[in-house]
Amino acid sequence: MQNAFIRTVMAIALGAIPGALGRYLITELTKAMIGKDFSYYGTFFINVTGCFIIALFYTLSEQKFKNVSPEIRLAIATGFCGAYTTFSTYGLETFNLLDKGNTTIALIYWLGSMIVGMIAVQLGVTLGSLNSKSNSSKI
Predict the structure, then answer these.
(1) Per-residue pLDDT for 139 more than 60?
(2) With CB atoms counted within 10 Å of each terminal CB, which end of the chain scores lower, N or C?
(3) What pLDDT does 134 receive?
(4) 104, 41 in Cβ contact below 8 A?
(5) Rounded to two decimals, what is the model's pTM?
């Protein structure tokens, strides 16, 4: 079991390296080309291409290349796409719920992730800002 665990961890890590670097480089390229105020274009591009990559890989590995090893699946889906964007997983999971006829759950998951995510962002900003006016020491 330990060897399988090590293979799994290594597969995810090796996939994550190009995913994280790709995300960083695309973001920096977007800032350089369009300007820092429009960096969300890079994020948008990453989210859309991440959804495409995970869906394409999922479909190919389920329908055409069924003998793809678990390590390759983990390297691409969890490692690369996970480091590139978690939005791709969100998109695929929503699709799978819809595909299985779980429309209500898909809608709750889809909207809930956005709404609760934004609430969590606001909570993080609020908590992070506490005492920032009175305590200006740097970490």
Answers:
(1) no
(2) C
(3) 52
(4) no
(5) 0.72
Count of positions (residues) in the chain: 139
d(CA 13, CA 57): 18
- List b or e across 20-35, with b for residues whose CB sees 16 or more CB atoms inside 10 angstroms: eebbeebbeebeeeee
Query: What SS3 string covers 69-121?
Result: CHHHHHHHHHHHHHHHCCHHHHHHHHHHHHHCCCHHHHHHHHHHHHHHHHHHH
What lies within 8 Å, CB to CB, of 109 at 6+ separation is: 93, 94, 97
Q: Using CA atoms, how far apart are residues 58 and 67, in angstroms rounded to an integer?
A: 13
